[in-house]
Write a structure and sequence with these properties.
Radius of gyration: 17 Å
CATH architecture: 3-Layer(aba) Sandwich
CATH class: Alpha Beta
Structural class: alpha/beta
Helix content: 25-40%
Number of strands: 8
CATH topology: Rossmann fold
Shape: globular
Strand content: 15-25%
Oligomer: single chain
Order of helices and strands: EEEHEHEHEHHHEHEHH
Number of domains: 1
Distance between the termini: 48 Å
Strand order of the largest sheet: 1-2-4-3-5-6-7-8
């Protein structure tokens, strides 16, 4: 994906296509590359696809929290003036999306969660004493996926670089702890928007029971499982992920049946 990263003030983002906004929020070790297949697919199918770069390492430590990231997303949406947003989040990005729709539902048309935190997650945060061990980091990164080959050397190098930077490692741990503390179980019933849950059947970080619990707690939600798939379905099985999401969005935009 070779889209230009735009910068407006403190916001860096990618924007492609025209139509209703599909806003993508990446996770703790996420990057633009996580969404490359999704952007390619939906920017030619009637959507303006936007991926803001979340300031995982730029906020001061006090605001390096799920709430701090949500405030950033809210300011970005206000700055751009988007309306009727389909808000999609993976992992920590899903948690930020949920917090945003609970606090500021007015511009959000639908929510899409995949491997989202917010109820329960197996984090990496407790294991950073081993951060100098490349092989260990490679194995931990591979656990994100059903097929370990999905964890490319480029991706492992990226994670290794983050955890070996002391300040970045501290901020990753702060965000992981904030995600565990910020449990949204009692607030999810406030969500009125149609919600799509896409879960890997082999997700070890937010296992399948987490997807089922989200479906139970979010009133207007539907859940799809994908076999042989881990914590990042949009990376591991992009064709199936895009197909499920496309059908969901098409259904939302069908005109209501005319009453006789």
């Amino acid at each position: 994906m070779n889209y230009e990263i735009k910068q407006e003030g403190k916001f860096k983002f990618v924007e492609a296509g025209e139509g209703e906004p599909l806003l993508l929020l990446h996770g703790l070790f996420g990057a633009l590359s996580n969404f490359s297949d999704l952007v390619e697919y939906f920017c030619t199918r009637g959507h303006k696809v936007i991926v803001p770069l979340l300031p995982l390492f730029e906020l001061d430590l006090l605001h390096t929290t799920v709430g701090g990231l949500e405030k950033f997303v809210h300011k970005f949406i206000e700055h751009k003036g988007y309306q009727n947003i389909h808000l999609l989040g993976n992992s920590l990005g899903g948690h930020v999306a949920l917090l945003h729709v609970i606090k500021h539902p007015e511009r959000i048309k639908s929510i899409i969660l995949t491997g989202s935190s917010g109820l329960f997650e197996n984090g990496m945060g407790d294991t950073y004493p081993k951060r100098g061990d490349y092989e260990y980091i490679r194995k931990k990164t591979e656990l994100t996926f059903y097929d370990p080959q999905t964890a490319s050397k480029e991706l492992v190098d990226e994670v290794y670089g983050i955890v070996n930077d002391r300040i970045k490692a501290i901020k990753i741990i702060a965000l992981a702890k904030s995600a565990i503390r910020n449990n949204l179980g009692e607030e999810l019933n406030q969500i009125k928007q149609p919600t799509l849950l896409i879960w890997g059947n082999n997700d070890t970080i937010t296992p399948p029971f987490v997807g089922r619990e989200f479906q139970r707690l979010i009133p207007n939600s539907e859940l799809h499982f994908i076999d042989k798939c881990g914590h990042a379905p949009m990376m591991e099985v992009p064709d199936e992920f895009n197909s499920i999401l496309y059908q969901f969005l098409q259904k939302l935009n069908e005109p209501a049946a005319v009453k006789q």
